[in-house]
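Deliverable D5.2: sample structural annotation.
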Amino acid sequence: MGFSDIFKKDFLASYTSDSISTIHIVSVLIITCIIAFYIFMVYRLVTKKTFYSKTFNISIASIAVITAAIILAVQSSIVISLGMVGALSIVRFRTAIKEPMDLVFLFWSIAVGICCGAHVVEIAIVLSIVLTILVIVLDRLPVGRAPMILVANLKDAAGEPELMEKVKGFCKYSKVKSRNITGKHCNLVVEVRASEEYEMTQAISEMEGIESVSLVSHDGEVTF
């Protein structure tokens, strides 16, 4: 046995730990599950999606537990840690994250898993409390009201100036976003901010030359 063999053996032995008991593993995973359930409930209460995805919420909670298990496995042996790096390097995720808030909860879940697996549960608990307060407080701050979208169909495109004058009488802000003209017919899409939305819609619908009018909301940027 040469010097290099002895060095390799001691090097690997120093990074190999048999002290992780089953009770310790179960306790870490149980604590992670509790915090993951808390993240699950916060996401359910905070999210404002029209179509709530329960499967995505379950995935967020599961990621925390999986990450904690990975960290526990990496701590037990340097050989496992190197193998884990190689295994995870070939994984490719194709699911697109469309909502920025989903990305926040995803990183929150990963951070909780890392903290619990590394035996710093206090950081995971404090992080969860601080993030909950931050998300709720920032969500409740008034940042302005999103404008509405007014869609009007005119029999004659020449009636657009009269329509815009009527709109400006009810709105503090108005901007034409789209204008489609087919022959004499005109389809007008206007971004508006009105305090008397029903009255404005009624007044426009009673105008001569208006075929139909509708007012819809959207989740786009807020105009100040």
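Annotation notes: Helices lie at 3-14, 22-46, 54-76, 78-89, 100-117, 121-140, 160-170, 197-205. The chain is about 60% helix and 15% strand.
The annotation will be released with the project's public dataset once the embargo ends.
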